[in-house]
Design goal:
Layout lengths: L1 H22 L10 E6 L5 E5 L4 H10 L6 E5 L5 H12 L3 E5 L4 E5 L7 E2 L1 H4 L8 H9 L1 E5 L12 H9 L3 E5 L2 E5 L7 E3 L5 H11 L5 E5 L5 H12 L3 E3 L5 E5 L9 E4 L4 H13 L3 E5 L7 H10 L2 E6 L2 E5 L8 E3 L11 H8 L5 E5 L10 H6 L3 E5 L2 E5 L8 E3 L3 H13 L3 E5 L1 H5 L5 H7 L3 E6 L17
Length: 470
Amino acid sequence: MVYLLIFNIVLTLYKRKKYLKESVDFAGGNFLKEKVIINGAKKLYGEVKIGGAKNAVLKHMAAALLLKDSCLIHNVPRLTDVETMIDLLASLGAKIEYDLNNNSILIDSANLSNNVANYEHVSKMRASFNVLGALIGRCKEAKVALPGGCAIGERKVNLHIKGLEALGAKIKIENGYVLASANKLTGADVYLDIPSVGATENIMLASVLAEGSTRIQNAAQEPEIADLANFLNSMGADIIGAGTSEIIINGVSHKDLHPCSYSTIPDRIEAGTYMAAIVATRGHGIIKNVFPTQLTAVTSKLTEMGANVNILDPFSLEISCNSTPKAVNIVTQPYPGFPTDLQSPLMSVLTTAKGVSIITESLYENRFMQVAELRRMGADVQQDGTHAIINGVKKLTGAQVKASDLRAGASLLVAALSANGTTSVSSLHHIDRGYEIFEKKLKDLGASIERVIDDSLPVSKPVNTINLEV
């Protein structure tokens, strides 16, 4: 048995290292020195298959901590954020098997050895903060570092704390950590001042094993919220109303929870980014493994720009654009409004649209970090507080640019694909957090893109870089 256990551990480590090697060459810190070279102005044609939703699967992984058994998650995207969550769960004592060939993860949380989510892990990715709700729900005690993630603006945790306190948790913040404890958690009515996705998720997780019923009012309605509820229900939780503004969680006991097998929904943000890239290059493509109904706000704006969008079936759509897009105005809103994660890629499309467009970012104050880099490519974009005014130019031109965060990086890729000449995009570690094997998918659509090592780039780890040592 001992030899078998050692063999399984070595095999798991080998698979993880192989995954990293396949995705990007991380050896010796090279992933920090990588960039992509894109020869633009080539129309994208073909099909692209969308992976599992990053913002859903990370929460499923956190939710697995509630179960004193194993759960199997399918449609797991190949992302460095997933690796970060694996490392965090492992630090808590969970046993994890990552099947790269089948894009699945088996998480065994039967015997947790730790209820402290340390700064090393949580500071790298905000989604990891969701272990707080799961740990306080299961262990009645947790110590979780305050979260990090993309530098896109102030993202407070006060609503998370308010909700957990309403359930009976005692919480204090010391030395950069949230300390939570409770003799027991009891269902309560929780009203969120704003429909925070993270707060809704943490309260849901903590309420699964609470006594009685919890009602979350003004809850976030994102598809990822409904997917988390479906995942929890598949393991024996009792949640209704997820995906609406009012969610009811009827508490269950540990004995009611059981192993489950669940498939993550497709990533609507990845899908929207490829749609933007196809429109920006005046191309034609089919987006597969997507739920078109979750992209209504995006589809509406792309159609308003002049794109042609056809829903082929419940899991695929066709998009094309044969002429210069028209200027449009966009205001980001919580779901079902226009998603903040897609204003950056669509800004790149609008840089060459006819007329003047205005994008209003209503959720995060620093979400226009791509603007300076787009200007380097010839874009005419002016920022006025939470408004970006885009005066369309005839064509962007290639330049050396650098991703500052995940979605800004996606914006630069879209711009580079449409620009005349050659563009190099560096700081790819941001993009790798949310777009799996993006250079391969773009190549399959006909893009001229190569990932290379640039020895002139610094090798010091940036704040949001994850530790990928196995």
